[in-house]
Amino acid sequence: MVKKKKSVKSRILLAGFFVTSIAILPTTILFFFGMLPSVVARFVDRSKQKTQTLTISFMNFAAVFPFWFQLIQREHKLDESLQILLNPMNIIIMFSGALMGYLIDWALSGIIATMMVQKGHARLKQIRKIQQELINRWGEEVSGEIPLDPFGFPITKEKNEQNP
Amino acid sequence: MSEPENTTDSSQQEEKTQKANASSGVVLFKGDIKIFPNQPLPHLDRGTAKAYLAETKSGSKAFAMICPDNLVPRTAVVHKYMNVVSTSLPKISASGVVDWPLEKREKYTLIYEGNMGKPLSSLRPSQALGLKLDAIINTVFYNLVDAISSMHDRGITHGNVCLQNIFDGGGSTFENVILGECLSVPCGFAQPSLYETIERSLASPMAKGEATYPDDIYALGICLALMLSSHDFTEGMSAEEVTLHKLEHGTFNLVTSRDRLPGKIMELLRGVLSDDVSCRWTIWEIEEWMDGRRVTGKQGARPVPKSSRPVEFRKKKYFRPDILATQLRKDPSAALELVESGELYLWLNRALQSKEYEERFETAVEQAKKSSSGANYAERMVSYITMALAPNFPVYYRNQNFFPDSIGHLMVDAVSKGSDVNVFVEIFQGDIIPFWATFRYQTGLLIGDEPGKFETCRMYLLQKSPGFGIERCVYHMAPSAKCLSEKLKFFYTRSSEDIVLALEAIGGQKDKSSWFFDRHIIAYLFSHDKSVIESSSADLISEEKHRQINAALKIFSKVQEREKIQSLPNLSAWVGGYLEILITRYHDRERRKNIKIEADKVKAKGNLVLLAEIFNNLREIQDDTKMFSQAMMHYQNLQKEYHRLNLELETNKGFGKGTGHQIATMVSGGIAGLVILIYLFVSVSTS
């Protein structure tokens, strides 16, 4: 019952999207061709969260936005939209935005990953240090690696012999 | 459980002044009484209790009785004796523990005032003094009656009335005759067997039990007879022969066998020397006689039956069961043969013709067979048969002759000398005493509370742990005894405070033992001061050292606090040697350091109360345990994190990449937003 409701809802939305797209056809065409790298990135991106797609999309959108602004400032017509798209320089600018996004993603993910690995190693060292401090304060028995009696004290050989 | 307080005996450390000055030969007792160890007074000795010249604070002559370690002095009646008012008894000046240089250890001592003079027994070489009746009846005899009646009025008996213990008081006439002391040794220990009743003379010297009033009267009668006789009526007779004569012919017959004594005294002698206790005169009847009044005759108990024909034992013939009973122990095998052949039963049945003797005999034989192992069968048989034939006699078992109320003295002697105590274990675990009590009850004799005490000791022997066992039995049966621990052999300890003070002294020695307690000390504390040890007993006897040390600390602190002992530096230092074990019971090393510092400060002051508080602070212990648990959990969590992170770093090639992408998205979004905003701003400004 819920699934049926969902699919009805999404169909209505889809239908609405199509109707709107046709209603604002020049914008739709401009964004379709201008944001093509983002669409490609969406399919190439294997990650769950699609963060790379978002990164590329943001910069791609930033590059397409001035042209769309020009479009709605002049006449919001299909001819204007096509004229913008047919200018190779405009395509280059739009696609360069996407490229910037890709570069940002590549560079930052590498830098951050390296930093995270370094941080991870540092944390490992810190853990060992804290554990050693705990041992210094509470004795080897705090590690739980030596057998303890019910009161938390190491079982000595004498105790073992007394209580076989 | 603890003995009555001795009002002059101070157990406080400062009053046990024992500065033995070896060079001047003077021992100071309680700060102002002088004892001269180089001036013994052998005529005042009571057995192994030795007398020495002493001087009171006021300079008056006195003498000190130094009590031997293996005997239990009559400390329980000292306070009663002090209330006795009689010029014919030595006045007790002080009593307590003294540091005795001749033996280099503490000894119990009794200080008596006055000049005793010479014993009457020194008047002639022979026992018999041959004195005139008129010379002694209003002097010696009067004084002795006065002394004994004064004691009986206070509820105590003398137990050592004999010519060796009667003194002339330093005068040439008998007017100052004085009866000697009787508290330094167990009742009857120094009493020659001639002066004892038949029953008491059969017991070991230290196992005769407390004398009764009739026993004192009997001894007085023997003294009187010896004073009046010109010839020793026991000359040429051994102690056993004297007893046998008394059994067969009676004591009166014995004392009148050699000399014709004055007619005036016969009624008195017959009355006081009656072997039948029920017929024997009391001190008040003697006083009546001395006042010239007639003393009413008394109904005697049934006499011991005499058989028409004898029974033969070891080539001798016996007509009476009690006399036979004295001989059976000499040859247990022959006695066993006599029983098993049926000869003894036949004699009881046909010759003696006494139903009660027969029944007792049958019961005794049956019980002896039940409770004997192969090794001691004959001896046990002799014990049971002796009880059956003579219920009024002391118990006989494996060369021990004793009345049950004084078995404690025998045990103290055995432990002091390191002798075997297994015989006592057998006595407690067996049923000899219940049978003795049963036979006595059947014959109308007094029993006392001994069966109950023996049953208690039997229960103690069932438990092997410290605080019980044969050691506990010793102190249960001899509550006035000192603690017999080997560790305390140089000290005379009679209370938990004494023990703590002794341990304090031992703590200052180099060669002290490793541990404070042994079975004797623990048993002694259980007997005499249960409140101090009971709550810690489980810890004290546990196998874990820290529990033992904690228990020891609690016990010492309780005693120090209760007795208000100011400082115990040596004992604190000794305990301090074990504190490391207690300190390590805290998990937190920081806390351990702090506790150690605090403990060292307190230890230096000798305050075990504060030391115990440090290690028994429940909140600290709980806190430490809680924090340790938290630390353990923290460690475990860190360990898990380590493993997880390490695995990630080693196996995940794309470690951190996810985060990198997310940050890139945010940066990208930010830049895009900024670009759009700048473009819009520029566009609006230019338009």
Structure description:
The complex is a heterodimer of chains A (about 160) and B (about 675). Chain A is mostly helical and about 160 residues long. Chain A has one domain (about 1-120). Helix content of chain A is about 80%, strand content about 0%. Chain A is built from seven helices and no strands. The longest helix of chain A has about 50 residues, at about 90-140. Chain A starts with a helix and ends with a helix. The model of chain A has no long low-confidence stretch (mean pLDDT about 90). By secondary structure, chain B is of the alpha+beta class. A seven-stranded antiparallel sheet of chain B has the order 1-2-3-4-5-7-6. In chain B, strand 6 (about 90-100) and strand 7 form a beta hairpin. The longest helix of chain B has about 35 residues, at about 620-650. Chain B is elongated, with a radius of gyration of 38 Å. The interface between A and B is large, with 51 and 46 residues.
Strand-helix topology:
The complex is a heterodimer of chains A (164) and B (687).
Chain A: H1 2-23, H2 25-34, H3 36-44, H4 51-73, H5 78-86, H6 88-138, H7 157-162
Helix pairs in contact in A: 2-4, 2-5, 3-4, 4-6
Chain B: E1 20-21, E2 26-29, E3 33-40, E4 50-55, E5 61-66, H1 78-82, E6 92-100, E7 105-113, H2 133-137, H3 140-153, E8 166-167, E9 178-179, H4 198-202, H5 213-228, H6 239-249, H7 251-255, H8 263-272, H9 283-290, E10 311-313, E11 316-318, H10 321-328, H11 332-340, H12 343-352, H13 355-370, H14 377-389, E12 395-397, E13 400-402, H15 407-417, H16 422-429, H17 432-442, H18 450-462, H19 469-477, H20 496-507, H21 519-528, H22 530-533, H23 537-540, H24 545-563, H25 569-576, H26 579-583, H27 589-605, H28 608-615, H29 618-651, H30 657-686
Antiparallel strand pairs in B: 1-2, 2-3, 3-4, 4-5, 5-7, 6-7, 8-9, 10-11, 12-13
Helix pairs in contact in B: 3-5, 3-9, 10-14, 11-14, 12-13, 13-14, 14-17, 15-19, 18-19, 19-21, 20-25, 24-28, 25-27, 27-28
